[in-house]
UniProtKB/TrEMBL annotation:
Biased composition (Polar residues): 86-95
Protein name (record): No apical meristem-associated C-terminal domain-containing protein
Compositional bias (Basic residues): 120-139
Location of the region described as Disordered in the Swiss-Prot/TrEMBL record: 80-139
Lineage summary: Eukaryota, Rhodophyta, Florideophyceae, Rhodymeniophycidae, Gracilariales
């Protein structure tokens, strides 16, 4: 995480990545996850971190790990919100009253009044060491964005699985159990939904295979049609 407000002075980038991956792995078990209290969840996450961390990384306490993970998750959520496309009615970051007019073209933007820099104002090109440092910083930022996206996707999948699990419990534990009319209809709809998903995946695989064969065939035709040169 970049910035002093996100990463504490005693947590490295590598520790943040290992912690985030440990949280994702523990979160991917929806059935167990629904039975866990917060303390139990973070205990498992802490154990997962200890097993996954390289030997050179320091051991962290449960309180330290859980606090750090919550900070990472907050930053991931903020990053996900920032990367959402702005809506038409959303408030502008600058809180300028005529910002909407600038965005829809009815008022010229500030950039149209900015003069291009002259040759005297050009900055010196960055040196090799600084360029390498900038590239490494960007690489770390991209890696954390990817971890944030994976964590957000895992959280969505977990919530979906939990919702489905709760639906199953509702119909199996209700009056009449699995033999009730409502439960039978519910499971019938689940089967239809699963079957439809399987059909879609099969159709996608078939289309991909046909496209690959067509592409390979086109390449072979071009090779055969090329005149021999001697």
């Amino acid at each position: 995480m970049s910035g002093t407000n996100v990463r504490g002075f005693n947590y490295s980038t590598e520790e943040d990545v290992v912690l985030a991956k440990a949280w994702v792995r523990v979160s991917e078990d929806p059935i167990v996850g629904s039975e866990q209290k917060g303390n139990t969840f973070y205990t498992k996450e802490c154990n997962e971190y200890k097993q996954a961390k390289p030997g050179e990384l320091p051991l962290r306490s449960l309180v330290s790990n859980s606090t750090r993970v919550k900070t990472i998750l907050k930053h991931c959520g903020d990053s996900a919100v920032e990367r959402q496309p702005p809506t038409r009615n959303a408030a502008t970051p600058s809180n300028v009253p005529f910002a909407d007019e600038v965005s829809d073209g009815s008022r010229p933007s500030f950039s149209s009044h900015v003069r291009p820099p002259t040759s005297r104002s050009k900055k010196r090109p960055v040196g090799r060491r600084k360029a390498k440092k900038i590239a490494q910083k960007q690489h770390n930022a991209n890696k954390k964005i990817k971890i944030a996206q994976e964590a957000f996707k895992a959280l969505q999948n977990r919530n979906t699985a939990l919702s489905r699990h709760n639906d199953i419990l509702l119909f199996t534990n209700g009056p009449g159990g699995v033999h009730s009319k409502q439960a039978q209809e519910f499971f019938s709809l689940m089967q239809e939904e699963a079957l439809e998903a399987l059909r879609d995946r099969a159709a996608a695989r078939k289309a991909k295979r046909a496209f690959t064969e067509l592409s390979e065939g086109s390449v072979e035709d071009v090779i055969q049609e090329e005149p021999a040169t001697g």
